[in-house]
Amino acid sequence: MALTDIQTIKPSKSGIFLLALPLIVFIFFFTQQEAGREVM
User: Fold this and answer.
1) End-to-end CA distance of the chain
2) How much of the chain is helix, strand and coil, in % rounded to 5?
3) Is the pTM here over 0.70, yes or no?
């Protein structure tokens, strides 16, 4: 990648991160609940 590409990708990357963060947290808690259920 060229240095000029980073500036154009940066805003979209932060947007994707903001969209992915709640999704990752949801998946994390969901898998934690599944793991807890298996233990019990």
Assistant:
1) 49
2) 90, 0, 10
3) no
Dist CA 8 CA 6 (whole Å) = 6
pLDDT at 28 over 80: yes
Q: Would you mind telling me the total number of residues written for the chain in this entry? A: 40
The phi-psi region of residue 2 (left if phi > 0; otherwise alpha if psi is between -120 and 50; otherwise beta) is beta
What is the predicted pLDDT for the residue at 27?
92
Q: For tokens 């932060």, what's the residue? A: 14
Per-residue pLDDT tens over the stretch 1-18: 566 665 666 667 788 888
Cα separation, 33 vs 10, whole angstroms? 34
- Tell me the two tokens of residue 40: 């019990």
